[in-house]
Write a structure and sequence with these properties.
This is SpoVT-AbrB domain-containing protein. By secondary structure, the chain is of the alpha+beta class. It has a single domain, classed as Pemi-like Protein 1, Chain: D.
Length: 76
């Protein structure tokens, strides 16, 4: 696939690749220069669990999941 560097230095990933790898806006990548003209781009893991509690609470079998209070790690 072909893409172009913008005047801001941005490279757009083609939509086919974004859909294939489920890349959403805000996804982070690392980039490494292999040699002149050759680069390695890697998607960084998100570690994001936003929405998992809502997903579990929406389970059709009610009552099996109970949220627990979490302790703050700010004082550690």
């Amino acid at each position: 696939m072909k893409t172009t560097v913008s005047s801001k230095g941005q490279i757009v990933l083609p939509i086919d690749l974004r859909r294939l790898d489920q890349i959403e806006p805000g996804a982070e990548f690392s980039i490494e220069r292999i040699e002149s003209g050759e680069y390695l781009l890697k998607k960084l893991p998100t570690g994001d669990s936003t929405g998992i509690v809502d997903w579990l609470l929406d389970c059709p079998e009610k009552g099996w999941f109970e949220p627990i209070a979490s302790e703050s790690t700010d004082t550690l």
